Structure prediction request, 252 residues.
Amino acid sequence: MSELLNQIQKDRVPIHVAIIMDGNGRWAKKRGLDRIEGHKAGVESVRNAVKASVECGVQYLTLYAFSIENWKRPKNEVDALMELLVLAIEQEAPELMKNNIRLNAIGNISSLPEKCQTSLLQSLRTTKNNTQLVLTLALSYSSKWEIVNACKSIAQKVKEGRLTIEDINEEIFQQHLATSQMPDPELIIRTSGELRMSNFLLWQAAYAELYFTPLYWPDFTKEEFYKAIIDFQKRERRFGKTSEQIQKEINK
Ligand code: IPE
Ligand code: IPE
Ligand code: MG
Prediction:
């Protein structure tokens, strides 16, 4: 077993880890390759992150695969990414079943090409009873889009008399987000050295621990995933309280 995996305290593993998988283009450029080759290489890192999650007992893994803003990229890159998505979903389906992994998707799924939607829906359906890990792909996702949608559905309910303004609170709001069925991420990882959220899980990240690494996504191995978990376990999560209060709670 890996040395690093052994260092992870099994009873303090984050329930939900989310990753901003960034740096595919720069990884390729550094090698004199086309950006698409970076995206292809990134698929292997996705496999590794999924395996590492299962091995250390993470229950929810959310991967930022394509943002709404990414539609602004050159058409050939967008097309290649969509093709890669179909290929990866279809190729990985047996592996998801074998490892008891449930696929989930958040984002404006109806904006994806027909072919992507079909293979995605197929995989969502076949894996829906799996229980080891919920693997969520954020596809054509942006946090502001999600928050605006939540506001719209709440407003609609108020209009129809199914909800009053007084009913609206943080919990009700949360229930109208695409992530309503999962706990908030406890750890958010971003690769490639960029120190920003890029419109990812803004509401849900309110108390997440952030972990940044300069490595490009295709270089992010299982060992790197374990390092992030170990780093997370060294942090004191205070949620607004004092360190003394937290220590008292731990020693209880
Ligand atoms: C992340 O890598 C993948 C997507 C956003 C789809 P990038 O393609 O953003 O790579 P860089 O940031 O240009 O290196
Ligand atoms: C964020 O990466 C989106 C994904 C990883 C899918 P970007 O590369 O699009 O982010 P910015 O544009 O550098 O903020
Ligand atoms: Mg990028």
